[in-house]
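Structure ticket #2291
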Amino acid sequence: MIASKFTQAILYASTLLLMAQTGLAITEEATTPEQPEKKLYRSFNAEGVPEFSDKPGKHAEEVELPTLPTYKPTPMPRTILAPKVKKLPKTPTPTTYQQLTIVAPTQDEVIHDNSGNLSVQFVLKPPLKTGLGHQLQFFINGQQHQVISAPATLGEVYQGTHSLIIKLVDSENRLLMTSNSVTFHKKRHVRKKPAKQAPAPKKN
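Resolution: structure written out below.
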């Protein structure tokens, strides 16, 4: 009985040693392609001691090797992350405008007019770049007014005190420049009646 257990122990140790020598390690089995199955043969020498080899010899018998556990990891899906592109805020079109000034009406000017129109004069340096879609917008009391005739005549400006400002914008209505603010007074024009002449003295 003891000899049988001793023989089994020798067989097990020899099997592991042969497996290590012949490349049948568990880790290799898990990471390398499948290899041809190796066989183990056992024979006994003159003293009756078992000897093991991977090559068959005289009076050698094949030993059934235990099945070794193997593990093949599941391939992970390859994910390619696209780089995030940061959107930059839109900036106004570069410009070289240097001046936008209202010269008429002047500050606190009183305008006598019954038509409801207002003629605006201003200085813009350099000239307006209409090719880039730039335009001027006229605001009276904070409300945009339409230009009814060139160069800058505004309509529907009636009696009262008003504030005037001009804004220069690009093709996407982004502010490029603002003029000075002017306060003016619109009054009705009243024609004065001619003074009555005193009657000529009667001649005697």
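Closing remark: The first strand starts at residue 40 and ends at 44.
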